[in-house]
Structures are given as C-alpha cells and as structure tokens.
Amino acid sequence: MIHTRIKSVAQRLNWYRTKDKTFGLYQGYVFHMGDGNGMKFIFCILKNIDNITIANLQATLELRKSEFKNVNIKLQDRILYLSFEEGIFPSIRRSKFVRALDSLVEIFENLDIPKQDSCFECGAEEDLDYYNYQQMGMLLCDSCSSKMEEKVELSLLEWKSEEKNYLKGSLSAGFAATLISAIWILSSYYSNKVFPGFSLLIPYFVNKGYEWGGGRIGKWTILILALIITFFEGMCLAFIFDKFHNSPDVPLSSLLNGGAISLWVCMISVIWFFFFYKENLPEFYSAEKVN
Ligand SMILES: [Zn+2]
To answer: Measured in angstroms, how far is the CA atom of residue 283 from the centroid of ligand 1?
Structure first.
C-alpha cells in the first residue's frame, strides 16, 4: 500500500511504482519515495561515486541541514535516505517533498554527481525502461533487462528443483514442539498454573525446528507447520483443561483466559504462516506507472 499523498506527488512527477514504493527520474536522478509507520521517506542510490565525493556530500548535507526542516538525513552504504517524521495524522505537504528533491538535485549537481538517466547496470542511454527487481525500482536498457530476466528465471528453476526436505523438516519441527509441550505440561502440572505464554513458544519452535531440520519453503510447508502447531496447541490445552477443570487451585476464569489466549495465538500464528511465510523468490518485471 502506498499512501495517497505519496501517490499524488509521484503521479505529478510521472513516476513508476513497486508494491510499496514509488520511484522515477527527477532532474536526471532516480529517487524512490514511500511511507512507513508515522513517516514518509525519499532515498537515492548513489552508485559508482568515489569516496571523496561521498565525504563532500556528507559535509554539504551537514552544512545545509537547516534547509531540511524536521527531516532526518542519513548517508550510508551509498544510499542517501531522508525520513520525514509525522504524527498519527499525515501532515507533510507535497511542496515539502518537491523542495527536498530540488535541494538534493542542486547539491548533487554542485558536486558533479553523475546523472542517473541511463541504464543502472551498464550505463547505456538508449532503449531504457523502468523495471521492478525485488521491489526496488530501476532504469534498465533492453539488453540488461533481458539478461536480468534470464537470471531470475534461472534462479526460479533452481529453487523449484531443490530438495525441500519436507520429512526431515517436519520431524525436527515435531521434535521441537514435543519438547516445548512437555515443558509446558510439566510446569503446569507441578506449579498448578496455566502458563498461556507457552502457546507463543510452540509456533516459534515449530518454525525454528523446521529450519534446523533443513526444511525449505515449498508448497506444502505452510500446511505442515499449521498442522503441527494446531495439533500440539490442542493437545496441551486438552491436557491442561483435563487436569485443572475441577481443581480448587486454578479458578475457572484463569483456565478459560489461558485457553482463550492459547487459541488466539494458535489461530494468529497459522494465519501469519499463510500470509507472510514465503520464500524470498526473485521477482523482475516491468514497472507500472503510478495511477
Ligand atoms: Zn544496460
């Protein structure tokens, strides 16, 4: 999701977009712009710049920092990053982004930082187009984009042909879950308490156990992990209810609260696995214009 204010600035600049950012040329330099929690940001990747220019840029930014009111500026690993802090309500005007871009361009030009209106890979100036590689926008020539496409296709094929170790991963995840469940059940048994916090440890250790067993992410992984988590959470809860439902030491309300927390954790972790547990597969495609 890109914030509407960022979208409207990017749209006027005729920029392109990735899933969560916008990017494009501004006076010959490629800038990326987006938003995060309570802030908006602009960054620029300064490739092929020598150390002296980087030091000069750092010094100039330091000298001119009063121009960038309420903006944090960071220059690290050849990425110049500006973050515009804002409160709960978005408050930064379009003009502020444009002023920041204008100041940056002026600084870059004064320091003779080369323009970036050429291929990001080879520097060619013709047949350029905008692409999206791993959610990072870039300008590439036809030949470099074809090479990049081949590279990405090849790594996808490699990933598909890799052994996913479902069995070893599942056994290791099951072992980790057994261990945590045993600790949960034993500590409840001997202390007469429910310890709902253990329900958080089960998904964590199931995930870790799968990794320790060499399990890779494939199309069955989420189902396997979801089943192991549900089974162990259910088994522990069944045991705890069975032990305490008539116990004078544990009031029914604390037993029900503990059970409710565990069920929520179980449900949220399974949903989390379904939506966010993904192999970081390479992605490369033509970028769309912001609309
Ligand atoms: Zn190129």
So the answer is: 18
